[in-house]
Amino acid sequence: xxxxxxxxxxxxxxxxxxxxxxxxxxxxxxxxxxxxxxxxxxxxxxxxxxxxxxxxxxxxxxxxxxxxxxxxxxxxxxxxxxxxxxxxxxxxxxxxxxxxxxxxxxxxxxxxxxxx
Length: 116
Fold this sequence. Notes:
The protein has 116 residues and is mainly beta. The chain contains no helices and eleven strands. The strands form two sheets. Strands 2, 4, 5, 6, 9, 10 and 11 form a seven-stranded mixed β-sheet that branches. It has a four-stranded antiparallel β-sheet with strand order 1-3-8-7, with no helix packed on it.
């Protein structure tokens, strides 16, 4: 079955960096588009970054453009989200997502807290 397992979250000061990882299994990773979402307390889940099936298109939310980078390692079946110059408003639970055969799949999430 499809599984997505996030890791790499934590507590970081403003201006700091983190790299989130999403280990994928149960599907052909090299043939799937992937996305990162986040959800802050009291707010709706929002898309942060996405990569299309053939890497031809990537999406970044305006709030993270120039600071976050989505990438993947096919050999490791792992998707990454590199986050730099983190801000207080980046505090949220971050989720990995893929959409396969009409179904949405989510990981369990990893907490990112930006605090001084």
